Amino acid sequence: MSFEDMDVDTIWMDGEFVDWEDAQIHVLTHGLHYGSGIFEGVRCYDTEEGPAIFRWEEHLDRFYESAKPYDMEIDYSREELTEATETLIREQDLESCYIRPIAFYGYDSLGVSPGDCPTRVAIACWPWGTYLGEDALENGVEVMVSSWRKHASSQIPTNAKTTGLYVNSMLAGEEARRNGFTEAIVLNKEGQVAEGPGENLFLVRDGELYTPGLAESILDGITRRSVIEVARDLGYTVHDDATISRGELNTADELFFTGTAAEVTPIRQVDNVEIGSGTRGPVTEEIQSAFFDVVERRTDEYEDWFSYV
Ligand code: PMP
Fold first, then answer.
1. Are residues 166 and 202 in the same domain?
2. Average pLDDT of every residue of the chain
């Protein structure tokens, strides 16, 4: 959905609330030319107790950690970023929304070295429904193994959520869509399964769960961590340090994606091979339903994962 159609009018930028149209940057901004920014994607759910931000503290941790490899100083405290976000949600009467904090090197000079470019920080919130479509949550998506490989963590820190990294995600996703698929799966430099362009991946085999380990050049997804915990609490064995070969995708009983945007989305087909019965599998369904019970607060468990606005 286009921003044009959304009822949002304010963005927090460098300590101030500004009108949506005034949240502008100079065309010679360092981050625009070299991808030298880091960001987060967070969901806030509509619950009986009002808007509840899912795992805000963990997203803040990752936000500050992502800045470290780039020697980027974020001049705003956790409290300031929290206050800004809660004000945006409250003042714009948002019930559920997506939250996008970003920090990037700004305008001063355009050497590759950021030199004296200031670190700019902004937060925007807007309504955002299901990422891969309502039908996707129920029936699963068809995905293509991308011909693009994920950058290795020896080439660029893949555990930092850096803006520049997402051209790889864009290439993989667009290639898949041009070929009639909904999303891509990206292999790492070694040719093992890494993740989706904006999702982590889980495989189900003989009733146990497998997900690529952090050394496979993946982002340490916060939904991934949450699903690992929920699945273990449901009694599943979860192998969170797996190496998964491309062929194992085809023979899996079930596959699903996790992510802030994608939540828990079943995968029903990889390339031209149906996965399991070619629809959402029973383990995926149980985990997905438990996940939505958690985020929509139909359970008292995992209460410490929520920040109420
Ligand atoms: N991998 C990549 C490359 C992503 O962009 C995302 C989305 N942030 C994820 C995995 C899932 O992470 P999370 O569950 O924290 O949203």
1. yes
2. 97
